[in-house]
Description:
- By secondary structure, the chain is α/β, with parallel strands linked by helices.
- The chain has one domain (2-187, 210-255, 305-314): 3-Layer(aba) Sandwich (Rossmann fold), CATH 3.40.50.150.
- The protein is built from eleven helices and nine strands.
- Strands 5-4-3-6-7-9-8 form a seven-stranded mixed beta sheet, with helices on both faces. It has a two-stranded antiparallel sheet with strand order 1-2.
- Helix 2 crosses helix 9 and helix 9 (259-269) crosses helix 11.
- The relative contact order is 0.14.
- Mean pLDDT is 87; it is low at 1-34.
- Bound molecules: S-adenosylmethionine.
Amino acid sequence: MTVNLPGGGAVNLGHCDIKAHYTQVRGFVGESKMRFSERTLAGMIASDFDRIANQYERLQATLSDRASARLVGFAGVSEGQTVLDIGTGTGSAAFAAARLVGPRGLVTGIDVSNGMLSVASRKAASQELSNLRFIMMDASLLEFGGCSFDVVISNLGIPTYRFHDAVSEAFRVLKTGGSFCFAEFTGLPPAWFSLSKVLSKFAVKRAPPELQRRRQARAQMAKEAAKFPLSSFSGVLKSVGFVHLQTSVYGITVPQPPSNLYLRYLITRERLEYDAMPKETKRQFREEMMRRLEDLRGGSSGKLERRVRFWLAQRPNPES
Ligand SMILES: C[S@@+](CC[C@H](N)C(=O)[O-])C[C@H]1O[C@@H](n2cnc3c(N)ncnc32)[C@H](O)[C@@H]1O
């Protein structure tokens, strides 16, 4: 099978030799100028994560790393394996997997956000890891041949707005007998509830066109994600063909980020909403958010508690 690479050119994937595949695409890794169209859901997500990439690494890394450590253990990642990390972001799970597969293995992180991948690539370069690659790619349309990976993992990165497509793609690219393991939060963090409350109070009614498009895309995304609530995930995995399903829930407690940094992070994420507000409204929005973030910190003794659910499943091996 020949596929066109997002950065231009084509590569033949009619085999399961993932190392050869990477030799061919190496020039493209970390150098892609490709952008997902802002008008698609993946494009909106990509631009959101592009904006917050550096702050994400500072504020979320501890939480992500704790979940990733659990994920790669549950997935049974081991020496010499080829591993795909979906929605790799700044690479938390990919780095955890790279340590386990060692120099004979290969880990590939894919994501739609160039900003997140740039942070991941910089970290990999500074650690001189040669068994780790990051590629810009949509989880619902993977550009790998079938049976390419021993394990597919995703730490909080499975696109729930494209859940069925992403799971089908994970199944296709897994070798028979391979494992698929992913993690998802069981609910939103309290700060996000506060943000949506405060936004609904201060957001402008007459939005400029770019903001209107974003609001429409947001609504569309929520509609798509609502088709696959967490309670439906196991059923989807089975319907796609996965077997030997297991799930477990894990509680993670990390320090709540300082309120001023958290507020800046939330504003960066909601940049279009914030920029559209008049100056005085911006001040009120910041004040109310800051007060709520401080209340949350006080109420939780500065600790952020999150619950993460893990799913593990196998692509059947007809020979066993
Ligand atoms: C919450 S972050 C998780 C990042 C990372 N796995 C971690 O543990 O910190 C979700 C990531 O999924 C990526 N993502 C969302 N939709 C995607 C899609 N359709 N294909 C690939 N990546 C996607 C986002 O760009 C973002 O980097």
